[in-house]
Structures are given as C-alpha cells and as structure tokens.
C-alpha cells in the first residue's frame, strides 16, 4: 500500500467511526499468498499484515474505540469453510478461463465505447461553443466596421 493510501485510509476510517460507523478492514493474507507476495510464505504475510495495522495506528487511526475490526481472510475462510469452498467450486464449475477472458474483453470494449462516446460528445460541445464564440467575434467585428463607416461619412 502506498503511504498516501494509508494516510487516506486513516482519515476516512476516523471520519466514519466518529460518525458512528463500525469499520471492518480485511487483511487479504491468502490472496497475497496466491499472488506470491513475500515469496508466498503465509507467516511472513501475516507479519506484514500486523505491521500494517501498527502503521495505521501510528498514522493516527483510532483503533481503541472498538469500532474498527480487522478480519484475516484465512481465518474467516477457515471458519466458514463449509460455505466458502462449495461456492468456489460452484463458480469454478460454471465458468472457465476462456469465458472469463471473453467476458472481460466484452466489458472492456463496452467501457471503451462509452468513453469514446463521452469524448465525442465533449468534443462536439467544445466545437459548438467555439463556433458560437467565432460567430460572436465576427458579429463584433462587423459592428466595429459599421461604426467606422459611420464615422467616415
């Protein structure tokens, strides 16, 4: 996590808890292990997770009011293994890598089309605005010429 993200997390968590919210922060230790963080060593990852909690405390996150709870994904998954693993298997059975890649590509293309349309609309608005401004300038220039002609006569 970037230092600015950690500071912003601290500020936002403090705002939420002072407003009466309870905050749960997930420490994604198993997912870090899957991504081979810290060489995939779960003990090292847990150490880094505890270190992050202390960094947030040092940055000013109010952890003493009982409104902030840290959840470790490994502990939560193990505690609810009878719910988690059947869901994972169900998702794995209903999907395959080719389908996931295709769906992501379709979503990416939809997003690109939407962004392209937005840019085109903004460009059209700018052109309309610039066109209107050019017309105003031409009109002012004509009016100045007319005034000059009047003075000459």
Question: What does this 3D model show about the protein?
Answer:
With 153 residues, the protein is mainly alpha-helical. The chain folds into 2 domains: 1-79, Rossmann fold; 95-153. It has 6 helices and 2 strands; from the N terminus they run H-E-H-H-E-H-H-H. The protein has helices at residues 3-18, 29-34, 42-58, 73-79, 81-94, 97-152, and strands at residues 23-27, 68-72. Strands 1-2 form a two-stranded parallel sheet. Helix 4 crosses helix 5. The protein is elongated, with a radius of gyration of 29 Å. The relative contact order is 0.08. The mean pLDDT is 87.
Outline the secondary-structure elements.
Layout lengths: L2 H16 L4 E5 L1 H6 L7 H17 L9 E5 H7 L1 H14 L2 H56 L1
Parallel strand pairs: 1-2
Mean pLDDT: 87
Strand order of the largest sheet: 1-2
CATH architecture of the largest domain: 3-Layer(aba) Sandwich
Q: What overall form do the CA principal axes indicate?
A: elongated
Number of self-contained structural domains: 2
Which features would summarize this protein structure in a list?
Rossmann fold; two-stranded parallel ribbon; 153 residues; elongated; 2 domains; mainly alpha; 6 helices; 2 strands
Quickly describe the structure:
By secondary structure, this protein is mainly alpha-helical.
